[in-house]
Amino acid sequence: MEQGPEDTAAPEAVAEKPIGALLSPGVEPVRMGSRPGIRPLLPQASGPVKAAVATGLAVNGNGTSQFMAGLTTNCTSPLQTSVMSVKAVKRKFIRDRGDKPFTKRLRFSVRQRESAYRYRDIVVRKQDGFTHILLSTKSSENNSLNPEVMKELQSALSMADADDSKLVLLSAVGSVFCCGLDFLYFIRRLPDDRKRESARMAEAIRNFVNTFIQFKKPIVVAVNGPAIGLGASILPLCDVVWANEKAWFQTPYTTFGQSPDGCSTVMFPKIMGGASANEMLLTGRKLTAQEACDKGLVSQVFWPGTFSQEVMLRIKELASCNPVVLEESKALVRFNMRLELEQANERECEVLKKIWGSAQGMDSMLKYVKRKIDEF
């Protein structure tokens, strides 16, 4: 786990200035994980307790003080009524919210727990207002997706959905964005039990794609290089896609013997029209970054030399917006699409499972991998 610039501070600079000096007058400092300070309901005596006061607070024969006995005689005290009312409102609020985080303290504690978690195939950086997730695979080449990589991405997205991040920036380390499914990983396991492994891989894809469909906060993608197969198909499931001018996009499904995935059978025709979608999904036509932008797959294209700076400038501007407005705006845009996308994802994965479980499907994948090895 890497930390963003705002997560680090010079210890000596912090030590020189007391915590209270950083807060406005009259505000107590709050420490993460500590209990809030409890103030007494009654003023504290500055000197010795007088006899009259001691008598009033003394415990009577029933085990309660006269003061407490007075509070509970015949009716509930105004203080008890107020406390009970506040507790009832809080219980209703928590019940209505369900499992949604409802305090900043909970959100920050979630962020702290994630900082202690080590990922193998991705890098997660908590920045000011957003979470930056970078593909940097160790278990596959060229940022390819296998079940392990997909699970880590799902975990990082789940944590970002629960903490105080306003949005997610998804990018990659190196010169390749994502080469789609890791077929070498798949082929190594197919001979053992083809049907079981096919079902396992299809289920991993289904869960992975559903994570993008159901994610409530905006996802911005910075495509720094080639996006192939599933790496290109998930882009329309995100909200904004910025591309390096050197990036290119391809979904050569028929070439490596599988059917489309990532809801591309629904989203590609929606954004680029049936003819262009068929050309990509059936013939595997490669699109340049500018062509992808013209067809609606990409939002904007930036020059390679200033790509990172352009992305970060726009991300920080977006992260300064009201988080409720961002989330509700996305919900409005996606309102009528979620069920359709989930059903499309289910259909695509069922077809993939059927193809991969057949001898012809396995043979096509082996030929594709062998051809790629020969080309290398």
From TrEMBL:
Transmembrane segments: none annotated. Pfam families: ECH_1. InterPro entries: ClpP/crotonase-like_dom_sf, ECH/Chromodomain_protein, Enoyl-CoA_hydra/iso, Enoyl-CoA_hydra_C. This is Chromodomain protein, Y-like. It comes from Rangifer tarandus platyrhynchus.
